[in-house]
Amino acid sequence: xxGEITPAATxxxxxxxxxxxxxxxxxxxxxxxxxxCDSSENDHRCKxxxxxxxxxxxxxxxxxxxxxxxxxxxxxxxxxxxxxKAMRRFVTPRGTILFFENLKPIGxxxxxxSQSSMGSDSLCLLGGTFxxxxxxxxxLIMTCLENSDRLQIWLTSDEMAQSKDRYILxxxxxxxxxxxxxxxxxxxxxxxxxxxEDNVGPAPTCLEATAIGCTPExxxxxxxxxxxxxxxxxxxxxxxxAEHKLSSDGKIISSSRIREGEITRTGNPWLGEGEMYIDQxxxxxxxxxxxxxxxxxxxxxxxRPEFAMKKALDSIPKNTPKxxxxxxxTVQTMLEMGEVPDIAFIDGMTxxxxxxxxxxxxxxxxxxxSTCINPPGLLTxxxxxxxxxxxxNSNSTLxxxxxxxxxxxxxxxxxxxxxxxxxxGQPGKGVVVRITSEVTKDNCxxxxxxxxREV
Length: 455
Hints:
Helix content: 10-25%
Shape: elongated
Strand order of the largest sheet: 16-25-24-17-18-23-21
Radius of gyration: 34 Å
């Protein structure tokens, strides 16, 4: 953002020059300047970077403190120090202009500068967890960058984040997601990432900061920080507020909604309301793909399913939100091992034939019992609604399907919170475990997009 430097007061007349017929000026606090700078008063332009000499011997720019003993070039090509007494200065809104004696204030108003190249550039502070970096985070960060030259992101520590939600990604993963995105948008040089170990970070005492970023609900915290700064004799920070980004359902895009499995990082539902109320048919083209294990296969003898089941259960992280079992043999094996799944789907069948052990399954182990209709090869509204309700139950739910539950994992993964574990039997091989992740949801979404509407 270029801006014109306007002096607080224009020095009257000419000042005595240290070298006859020379016009001089010096700028402090600006890394790059551009302006008319010619001792012969020709309308030449020169652009100068800190510490470098320009095309004219009598024009230069530096970042050193104003009392630095500047060196000038003499007409014969030599150099000599300039006395600090030979300079006068006054402050402009963008820096301090130092005039040598006998300066004719020629071209002063024409001096322009890039804000990003100012020695005293602006710094915005931004704190947060930034879990599952999403489009709302992108908007917040870009708003801060649009209002400052540099941005410090103070990223919540694992200890603080885990106390809020144990399913939040670890600090290094969250940091890397930020770095990858910043590189993608070519802003990695403007942003630094730091560890935040308290609720306010450096904002109350930071001398370098000029602004602080927030969203509407954290605005009061920024006001409180500014009150602390004023009490300490510091300037208040400019509060840069970014409005929330909304998802397609009109609700706020948030990391918690992503963790709960409701929406993607761009705010789209994994399974929209429109799809909830239609029956969808699996096309034959998916037959071979869906016969393959959709997850990690734990092998074991078919006549002793508990062998494979033990390995499968041992593989599931202890902080898994829910364990969901699909299939009569899978559910019965877990119950016999003393494990009650949070959600269980049964249809009284195995290998598409009536299972003789169906009557032995103890339904009383479950707190809730639900029934639904779902014919073979379909995903019905009935199954979708039953699944969605079961995921909201705090206690175990048994869903008895009239038809087939083979395709239920697709719907389960689309609705389930991240980290849930879905188990089902692979005939003749063992037990398959698939953890619900964003990749899993993407795969299920891809599969469902191929399904056709059942009329």
